[in-house]
Fold:
Amino acid sequence: MLLERHGPDARLVAGGHSLLPMMKLRLAAPEFLVDINDLTDLDYIRVDGDEIAIGAMTRHAAVLSSAILAEHYPIFRDAERVIADPIVRNRGTIGGSVCQADPSEDLSAVAAALGATMVIRSLEGTRTVSAREFHTGPYETVVGPTEILVEQRVPIRPGSGSAYEKLDRRAGDWAIAAGGCFISLDGGGVVTDVGIGLTAVGAHHFCCPEAEAFLRGRVASDEHLIAAAAKAAEAANPQTDQRGPADYKRHLAGELTKRALRRAVARARGEEA
Amino acid sequence: MQVTMTINGTEISREVEPRLLLVHFLRDHLGLTGTHWGCDTSNCGMCVVTMDGVLVKSCTVLTAMAGGREIGTVEGMERDGVLDPVQEGFMQEHGLQCGFCTPAMMLTARALLDATPDPTVGEIREAICGTTCRCTGYENIVRAVQWAAEHPAREEVTA
Structure:
C-alpha cells in the first residue's frame, strides 16, 4: 500500500478542497499525493441496521440531497446548505472535511452532536473511534499516516429532531460560530437524549457535555433550552480573530445553540420540517 | 508525469509537472484561455469547468487528478458554428459586462439547465452563487439563463 511505503511524506487527496489550499499556502507540503477519487465504493449513504452509514468519499452535494439524511437528520441538510457553494459541494467530501479537522469546520460539529462513530482502516484492520475522540487538536486527528477514514456511522434515533444554525460573514464562508444538535423527547416532553455540537468557538472536541447533561431528564421548555444554551456559551473558548472578537463569538455560541435547540424541538414535535 | 484526458471531446496527452493545476494546464499549456483564473482559492468560480459532467473549480484540481477524465470548457459550448442556447441567451439579454465571469456563468447555467430544464429564479440564483460577477450584473445573467430555458433547441437560435 502506498501509504505504508511513503509514510508521513504521503497524503491522501479526495476532493482536494482542503488539502490543495493548504499546499498553496505552504502549510502542507506532501512529497506524494494519493488520489482516492476512484474509490467510488466509499461513496454511499445507506441505512445499515439501526445506524446510517456514510462513506468517506460521499460528496457534500450528495449529503445535501440525501433523502435518508433528510428523513432522519435534517441537521445535515441545514449544515450542508451553508457549506461553501454548489460547485465546491460537488467536489468536497465528508471524509476530507472531518480529516482536515479545521477548528471552524461544520460537519465535525454535526458528527460531535450526533455522537457519530468514525471507521478507520489500515492494512492491519479496521478500528472505530467516537467522533468526540476523533480530533486531537486543530488540524489533527487520530487517523495515522498509514490509515484512512472509510466511514461515518450515526445511530438512528426515531422521533428525534435535529438542526444546525450558523452565522458567517458572507454566504458560503467559514462560520464565525455555529451550533447544531439533536434532541429526543418522551411523550411528556422530557428530554431523553440530546447531543450538542459547536464549531469555530474553541469547544473541546466540538461538543459541550455540560449543556447536554443539564437538559437530559428535564422538560424541553423554552426556559430550559435557554439555560442549556447559556451553558454552551460557557463551554466555548473562542479566540479573537478576523471573524470577530471573542466575546461576540461566545454570545453567538449561546444564541445559535438556543436557535438550534428550539428548531430541533419543533422538529421532534412534528411542528417543523 | 504523463497525463491523458479528454477535453471537449478530444483526447489530449501531455507531460506536466505533478503540481500543475488544471486551470493552468488549460490556459498555459493548451491555450484554452476561455477558462479564467481568478482568486485561486475556490471562492470566485472563474475557473469553472466540467469534469465527467460535474462542475468543478479547476484552480482546486491538479492536472494529474483530471487524468482519464472528460473535461468540458467554454470552448466546447459552440458546436459546428452554432451557439449553445445559453450563449445565445447571454447575447440576447446582455448577460455580461466585462465578460470575465461569463465562461464560468455559462457553463454553470448549462449544467443547471441539463439537470433542471425549467428552473425558478431562486434555483438559478442558487446555482450561480459559486460564481462571482464583480460587475454585479446578476439581474441580466438570471434573465439570460431564463432565455436559454425558454429556447432550449440549438436550431432556434439566430445570431
